[in-house]
Amino acid sequence: MLQVNVTRKVVEAEGICSFELCAADGRSLPPFNAGAHIDIHIAAGLTRQYSLCNDSRERHRYVISVLKDPASRGGSTAMHDTISQGQTLSISEPRNLFPLAESAKRHLLFGGGIGITPMLAMAHELHHQGTDFELHYCFRSSERAAFIQYLRQAPFASHVHLHDDSGSPEQKLDATALLAAPDTTSHLYVCGPTGFMNFILDTAQIAGWPEDRVHREFFAAAPVDASADSPFEVELASTGQIFYIPADRTVFEVLDEAGIAIESSCEQGVCGTCITGLLKGIGDHRDQFMTAAEHAANDRFTPCCSRAKSPRLVLDL
Fold first, then answer.
1. Cα 52 to Cα 242: distance, rounded to the nearest angstrom
2. Which residues pair with 215 in a beta bridge?
3. Do residues 59 and 32 lie in contact, with contact meaning Cβ atoms separated by under 8 Å?
4. CATH number of the domain to which 304 belongs
5. What is the mean pLDDT of residues 263-276?
6. Are residues 196 and 135 in the same domain?
7. Rounded mean pLDDT, 214-220
8. Strands 276-280, 300-301: parallel, antiparallel or unpaired by DSSP?
9. Which of 75, 109, 169, 292 could form a disulfide with 135 if both were Cys (CB 3.0 to 4.6 A apart)?
10. Domain tally for the chain?
11. Domain assignment of residue 243, yes or no
12. pLDDT (tens digit, 9 = 90+) per residue, 230-253?
């Protein structure tokens, strides 16, 4: 864990605050690459992930941006209402589950609303590399869009396209045209609200974009109908222990209660932190982190949200 001070807290737009975090001991922070996130321990039992949005060449600070979500499970509300400038926080070192593809010659970045945050870091990195890219930022209105003035003046401003849902028709996003006829050197990245992401992902699929060139990072899981959930068993390969998983509890909850340590963060299946090897059995894969092809391979499992289609799963634990 790292100790950092909140050196700046800035209202960037309606319902959005940015936080500048610097090492409490004054030293350089661990390096990161664009697309990385950190875990912030906001309070006891309350940990949330936030993407780093500043230039990855900066070692003196991390910058995150947080939307105060009306449907908050406590994290974003606490960040807005209880975290203030001058406060000290415990955070994790950066982890990257949403990296830029090194083999790509061209990058198409789509950020919807608060999904602009990882795209900012990506734009910085691609600009420094001199790599071809476009950044498309979609937002409901200018009052609710963070970093607009910065994007207009950024050194990569010529690569930025702003799409205001409340603005004139000619500047609105035409995803069908942008994603038509994908070439073999281009990669697509998308982050934002679930509806926005599904729209971009569906458009890309229709246009023929291969899954391995489409990269996404969800902030929240889509609702799941759990009314038909049934119990199953989980066996740990290392010890042979068998655990009963009731219909109304997750694998993570049961194993955590039994003292089986599994690293976890979002507990919704969007971050990939808890992914565990699946050795036997058929998983009912409900995460939004892995691709359809990875679900079909059935060799990895997210204990925070996924269940079983077979009576028992054997996990590589």
1. 39
2. 189
3. no
4. 3.10.20.30
5. 79
6. yes
7. 84
8. antiparallel
9. 109
10. 3
11. yes
12. 999 999 999 999 999 999 999 999
| Mean pLDDT computed over 304-309 | 93
- Report pTM: 0.81
Shared domain for 79 and 48, answered yes or no, is yes
Is the pLDDT confidence value at 74 over 80? no
R_g (Cα) of the chain, nearest Å: 20
Residue ranges making up the domain that contains 16: 2-95
Instruction: Give the CA distances from residue 54 to residues 97, 110, 119, in Å, rounded to whole numbers and listed in that order.
Output: 17, 17, 10
Q: What is the CATH number of the domain that holds 67?
A: 2.40.30.10
Q: What is the pLDDT of residue 221?
A: 60
Report which of 165, 193, 218, 198 is spatially closest to residue 70, judged by C-alpha positions.
Answer: 193
CA–CA gap between residue 293 and residue 150 (Å, rounded): 38
**Closest listed residue to residue 2, CA positions, set 28, 20, 35:** 28
Cα(268)–Cα(306) distance, integer angstroms: 9
Return the ∠ at Cα 80 (arms to 39 and 155), rounded to 5°: 70
Tokens of 233: 């068993």
My answer on whether 111 and 211 are in the same domain is: yes
Residue 61 is encoded by which pair of tokens? 């600070």
